[in-house]
## 1
Amino acid sequence: MTWDTYYEKINDWAVSTAINRISSLENIGSPDEVIDAIGLIALESESGATRLLNKALQLGIRFSGEALTELIGICSDESLRRAVKQSADRFTAQDLETLYGCVDEKWIAEAAKQHHLRLPKDMEDIDDEETEDQETYQEEILTALESASYALECCAAAQEALCRSGNMSILDMISNRFLSSLAKSASLIEAEQYMEDAQDALTAFNEDLHVILQNKYVKLHAVRLYSEIDLWFNSGVTDWFVHLNINRMHKRIGKAIKQIEVIQRELKQLLA
């Protein structure tokens, strides 16, 4: 579905319908339109609003500092952090001034450092470069730990959704009735949405790990992580093929969870 079609119809849809259509978006609109749509969904569902923001980020959207302030309180903090990080390459010093006092200061400091921007005048400068490096690396680890926790939540939710889809797939193969087919279809749509959330969370965690590994103070033994999980079904496959793929993806997510937990333990040890 194109963004133009989605945005044209969103006011006529129930919020649940608008949320279900997010995964079918092929492109994204202007930041103003996206924020408008997120605001409509957020009136009833913060998780739905967060899902639309995640989809927009996946499709490459960038926001101004002023636009980002409109997302505060209606989307998850983790997704807002990702939006700030993704948009930072187009920020000016004024964008950072606008965000100051609205978002975590370490997000602003990270954006300023990576893109050579002047910090807001009210943020205290650290004169000692070595101390700054040490504090920065600790902040980067804390950020990665937040991403790890969020990735674990998303992967666990995806696993549960896959289990439900697997059960409905078996029921449909046994009964081969209209209602069971309808229930299976609904469970697959739900699982796809959770899989996309898991993909986004794993990608964000990988990005944070990459930042950490640039720091001379950090040595990690376990750094490889699944960053993408291919979507695993479409309307043309057979029932058995769908069921086998559900089991395969369930195992892959299980491996990703174990990898995240190993890296998470290492990161915590660095702060000990």
## 2
Amino acid sequence: MRDDDPPRNTRQHATSTSERGSFCTARCVCGWTGPARRSRERARTDATEHTAGRASEA
């Protein structure tokens, strides 16, 4: 972490999903990656839970 970076726990989370074959994965700019899911909706739910602080941090 650089000196001018905000503390890790106060950074904004920006999530997205990416597809590889028949699997969809949620990702965040903080480095977190959710599990590969066959359901896009479940991957989006993983991302929502992560930004709400309910998912475990990687």
